[in-house]
Amino acid sequence: MKISELITEDLIVLSLESTTKPDVISELVHVLYKNEIIADEAYLVSEVMKRENHSSTGIGFGIAIPHVKSSVVAKPTLVFGKSSIGIDYESMDDEKAYIFFLIAVPESGVDLHLRALATLSRKLVDDEFRDALFNAKSKVEIMSLLSSIKGD
């Protein structure tokens, strides 16, 4: 599975408006709803928040990867968002998060969200790759970077 198969330019938000963790989750989920990938926006927000209340998906290095498996998701999808101000996301390193990847898969998606999470996480430990994401100015640049990630 390639990360680039889960995302299109319509699923990239270069300038998130949110300033809180619940708001950024709502904003990312809204992108799924707007693109007709989910059937129930409020339900999916509650599912992602339930997961976050159990354990934060802020992995550190300025990155958070919320993920969810739900019956309201039509197809495996990745939403990318970037915040210029950073958001307190209760990350492992207690630093703000600036880059967000929301992974949403159908209930029948077996372990696809975990495979996507592992694939992304392996690449995000690379300082050069993270810096390139932080500095990307266009959706085309983001897509190019994500296309460089080799799946398992």
Descriptive notes:
The chain is of the alpha/beta class. The protein has a single domain, classed as Mannitol-specific EII, Chain A, CATH 3.40.930. The chain contains 5 helices and 6 strands, in the order E-H-H-E-E-E-E-E-H-H-H. Strands 1, 2, 3, 4, 5 and 6 form a 6-stranded mixed β-sheet that branches. The longest helix has 14 residues. The protein starts with 11 loop residues before the first strand and ends in a 5-residue tail after the last helix. The model has no long low-confidence stretch (mean pLDDT 92).
Keywords:
single chain, 152 residues, alpha/beta, Mannitol-specific EII, Chain A, 6-stranded mixed beta sheet, 6 strands
Short account of what is shown:
The chain is of the alpha/beta class and 152 residues long.
| Share of residues in helices | 25-40%
Number of helices: 5
CATH superfamily: Mannitol-specific EII, Chain A
Overall 3D shape: globular
Secondary-structure-derived class? alpha/beta
The residue ranges in which pLDDT falls below 50 over 5 or more consecutive positions are none
CATH topology: Mannitol-specific EII, Chain A
Number of strands: 6
Give the topology:
Elements: E1 12-13, H1 21-34, H2 41-54, E2 58-60, E3 63-64, E4 67-70, E5 77-87, E6 97-106, H3 112-124, H4 127-135, H5 139-147
Parallel strand pairs: 1-5, 3-6, 4-6
Antiparallel strand pairs: 2-3, 5-6
Helix pairs in contact: 1-2
